[in-house]
Amino acid sequence: MRQTVDFLVIGSGIAGLSFALKAANFGKVCVVTKSNIDNTATKYAQGGIAAVLYHPDTYEKHIRDTIMAGDELSDSTIVELTIRESTNRVMELIEWGVNFDKTKSGKFALAKEGGHSEYRVLYHKDITGKEIEQKLIAAARQNENIEILEDHLVIEVITQHHLGIEVSRRTSDLTCYGAYIYDPHKKKVRTLLSKITMMATGGIGTVYGNTTNPLVCTGDGIAMVYRAKGQVRGMEFVQFHPTSLFNPKESPSFLITEALRGAGAVLKDETGNEFMYKYDPRGSLAPRDITARAIDNEMKMSGKEHVWLDATKIKKNEIFDHFPNIYAKCLSIGIDITKDMIPVVPAAHYSCGGIITNDWGETTIHNLYASGECASTGLHGANRLASNSLLEALVFSHRACLRAVEKFKNIHFCHEVPEWDSSGTVLNEEMILITQSKKELQEIMSNYVGIVRSNLRLQRALDRLFLLYKETEDLYKKSILIPEICELRNMINVGYLIIHNAMDRKESRGLHYSLDYPEHRDVQQIEGDRL
Questions:
Q1: Residue 456: CB atoms within 10 Å
Q2: What is the pLDDT of residues 191-207, one digit of tens each?
């Protein structure tokens, strides 16, 4: 089965849909998403989107906060262009119908989160991402130029490799021609040729056992682009959100937004004492890397499985108005947050690394763009400032579309691309082989490549993961294609990248903290094709 389209968009979160809506003004768009269209990390974003709107906030303050949170590893040029575009991009969301909360005076209500020096986070109660996702989906469904393929899994991006031409990460004319896509209804692989491909597949959270990400976040885009010899960086910088609800029976973990701490909630130990001022003068509003490590240390010292978040000093009407979803969720497991403290624990939340892009969202593979969490634009550096993620996706999907529509009319479809070859795949092993390998991967990453690392832990993780890699690749080559084996393969690839990047960084920086290199040092990073 073969199809052609001007713009192929892989992923249906804010990065993919905002690009699709703009590209649809110039050509035909196909949005491919491996689950329901709304099953994205965007939908789960509670806190909001950061943007400069009112005095006394300024672009300069937001730029400074972003660079400080990124531990001076952010690209200053990228930070400046992102922040200076923030106001216009947020106004576009409002034009698409997104309803941000307002004060009685009619101005937008703004929250303050960890690492921010001013109130600048726009929100819709505590379900901002859901509000944005619903409005973008509605607009996309109404657009005649947008085709949406739900429950379809992209297996590989197509390059010269599939034409029998040897390529490497140094191939200067490496080009994307589209993608191979698994159709679960027909149990066949489609060949979808495109002039422009946008990778917007989101994050990598399920590589870890405890994550706030939806279970679809298996790092597919990063793994596919890396296998296609695209360049990836910064994978050692995995952000663990300090406050997910401690509820071991639930997966993914329920996020307790940072905005709750911005409203006055404080972190406390088992004896009810605030502990964050021991670690940072900003207390419970310290950036996420500092807060997550502090909680991890408190748990290790006490031997407890969680710490406490005390929101009882926040006025009830503010809880009910601003945090109704969190209130209802906690109440469902017997916790009244107006009276009771909330048990919280860090959980894998966001990848600050990913597919390398330039300031127009272009990757190192021609005609392939990336935006959102799967991309490494240079904005976040070593740690993401809270509520900058939705903003980054909007800015770079917008810029990618500007560049893509300039180019796509002069791009021709590569009709020499062969159909997917499934010959020789006859093995249908029991699912236990896949589920057990996935469990082992998550345990390895959580235990050895988590908030605190060491050379010994990383080497142990690498040795164990290599065995899983060999077993999975062998199984993949022999098996009839199913989504679960593709996802496991991608997760293992991403795990390797995280470990390799962590081993190469001989310092502690932002989200990467090593017991062997506790000092913050500037070193020349090692690049190479290690996988």
A1: 11
A2: 999 999 999 999 999 99
Report the alpha-carbon distance of residue 157 to residue 221 in Å, rounded. Answer: 9
Q: Percent of the chain scored above 90 by pLDDT?
A: 89
For the entire predicted model, the pTM comes to 0.93
pLDDT, tens digit, 9 for 90 and up, residues 328-362: 999 999 999 999 999 999 999 999 999 999 999 99
How far is the C-alpha of 57 from the C-alpha of 63, rounded, in Å? Answer: 11
Q: How far apart are CA 91 and CA 49, in angstroms?
A: 12
Give me the helix-helix angle, 76-84 and 86-95, nearest 10°: 40
Number of C-beta neighbours around residue 338 at 10 A: 15
CB neighbours of 317 closer than 8 A, spacing ≥ 6? Answer: none
Q: How far is CA 310 from its chain centroid?
A: 28
Catalytic residues: 288
Point out which residues pair with 238 in neighbouring strands: 351
Please tell me the distance from the alpha carbon of residue 284 to that of residue 280, in angstroms, as a whole number.
8
Question: How many CB atoms lie under 10 A from the CB of residue 520?
Answer: 12
Is the peptide bond between 418 and the residue preceding it cis, with omega within 30 degrees of 0? no
Backbone angles phi, psi at 498, to 5 degrees: -60, -45
Measured CA to CA, the distance from residue 289 to residue 333 in angstroms comes to 28
Question: Could you give the CA distance from residue 196 to residue 7 in angstroms, rounded to a whole number?
Answer: 5
SS3 category, 340: coil
Angle at 227 between CA 21 and CA 153, to 5 degrees: 45
Say what angle helices 389-407 and 86-95 make with each other, to 10 degrees: 90
Q: Nearest-5° angle of CA 435, CA 437, CA 439? A: 70
Q: Residues 230, 30, 231, CA angle at the centre, nearest 5°?
A: 5
Q: Using N-to-C axis directions, what is the helix angle for 455-478 and 432-448, rounded to 10°?
A: 160
Q: How far apart are CA 238 and CA 301, in angstroms?
A: 23
**Residue 529 confidence (pLDDT):** 38
User: How remote is the C-alpha of 57 from its chain's centroid?
Assistant: 27
Q: Which of 489, 435, 495, 390 is nearest to 40 (CA)?
A: 390
Q: How do 375-376 and 354-356 pair as beta strands?
A: parallel
* Residues 421/480, Cβ–Cβ less than 8 Å: no
